[in-house]
Design goal:
By secondary structure, the chain is of the alpha+beta class. The chain has a single domain, classed as Alpha-Beta Plaits (2-Layer Sandwich). It is built from 3 helices and 4 strands. It is globular. The two termini are about 15 Å apart. About 15% of the residues are buried. This is SinR family protein. It comes from Acinetobacter defluvii.
């Protein structure tokens, strides 16, 4: 499953800590300072639990499951990543 993760924090070091944890998932790509796409077998609530351990009460976290309907402009690496994940999902379901 693909998820979009958005972290809002007033603490710069939280972005790096979250990034290190996100890199441990099956596949991930950082879109910008506070946004990632990941592909993992885990559900959104489990991902939240993993990431919440390094957050403060001043941080907010949004995790959305994405589908195969997407459109991207001017970010070829993100577009390629999503297409690779689509292909990977197609291969595992057939």
């Amino acid at each position: 499953m693909n998820y979009l993760i958005i972290l809002n924090s007033i603490y710069e070091d939280h972005f790096d800590e979250v990034h290190k944890t996100i890199e441990d998932y099956d596949h991930s790509i950082r879109i910008n300072k506070n946004t990632w796409l990941i592909n993992t077998k885990y559900e959104a609530n489990i991902i939240r639990q993993h990431l919440a351990n390094m957050m403060s009460i001043h941080d907010s976290l949004l995790i959305f499951q994405t589908n195969d309907n997407f459109s991207i402009a001017n970010q070829l690496d993100v577009s390629d990543w999503l297409e690779d994940m689509q292909q990977s999902n197609l291969m595992t379901t057939t």
